[in-house]
Amino acid sequence: MPKLKIITHHYGGMIPFFSGKIKLGFRQIFYGTPERNPVAEEHHLKRAPVEYFKMLYADTAVNGEPAATRCGHSFFGTRFSLFATDAPFDAEQGRGLIRETIAAVEALEISCHERDRIFAGNAREPPATKRRAGGESEIARMKTGNIKVKLRDGEMGAYLAIPDRTPAGGIIAIMEIWHSRTHRDLTERTCNQERAGL
After folding, report:
1. Is the dihedral of CA 125, 130, 136, 137 positive or negative?
2. Residue 47 neighbours by CB under 8 Å, 6+ apart
3. How far is 16 from 21, CA to CA, in rounded Å?
4. Least confident of 26-30, 31-35, 87-91, 148-152
5. Domain limits of the chain?
6. Pairing of strands 154-162, 143-151
7. Which of 30, 46, 64, 153 could make a disulfide contact with 101, Cβ separation 3.0–4.6 Å?
8. Sign (positive/negative) of CA torsion 102, 104, 107, 113?
9. 67, pLDDT greater than 50
C-alpha cells in the first residue's frame, strides 16, 4: 500500500531516540560495512531502513516534554509532525496536556510558519499529498467531523479527517485542537506573537 499514510503516536515512541540503532543493523555489524546492510540488500530495499521510518507522520503527544518534543521533531522534521495531545486524560481534563504541548511546540527553534504546519497545516493538507486533475487534493475528498469534550472552564475539540474507504474509527489526521476559552486560533496567536517580537 504505497499511498498509505501512517501517523505514529507519542512522536514515534522509541524511534527518534534509538534511530542510531535502526541505522546499524545487527547483521551489518558482522557481515556488512558502514554503507552496506546485508538484510536491506536481501530484501531489495531501495533506501536505508531508517529512511522508511522517516516516511511516517508523528504526533506531538509527549505530555508537553520539551526534550522529547525536540527529539521527535529532530527526527521527523516539521513536514511530518502533527499537533496532538492525550487530552482529556490528565488531572485538568486535558487542559494541562494541551497547554504544555502548545508550549513545547512553541519552544522549538523554528519559524512561525513551521509551527503553523505542525499545529494545523500538515493535517489540513500534508505537503506530500498528491493533487488530482482539476487541483483537488486527496484530503479534500475526506469526510470531516467535529467532536467536543466539555471542560470545567470551556470546551476542547478536534476536527477529524476520515478517508472515504477507511473502516469506522480509522482516523488518519487530527485537523486542529483548540481550547475555546484561551486559544481562539493557535497559528494566528503564534505568528502574531513572533511578529510583535514576543
Report:
1. negative
2. none
3. 10
4. 148-152
5. 7-195
6. antiparallel
7. 64
8. negative
9. yes
pTM given for the model:
0.67
Using CA atoms, how far residue 190 sits from 44, 96, 102, 113, in Å, is 45, 18, 10, 9
Q: Which residue has the higher pLDDT, 134 or 16?
A: 16
Closest CA to 101 of 174, 171, 177: 177
Neighbouring C-alpha atoms within 13 Å toward the C-beta of 170? 12
Q: Is 50 exposed, middle or buried (0-12, 13-18, 19+ CB in 10 A)?
A: middle
pLDDT for 166 equals 37
Q: Cell numbers for 81, please give them.
A: 509532525
* Contact partners, residue 66, CB within 8 Å, separation at least 6: 103, 104, 107
What is d(CA 138, CA 158) in angstroms, rounded to the nearest whole number? 20
Q: What is the pLDDT of residues 135-158, one digit of tens each?
A: 444 444 444 444 444 444 444 444
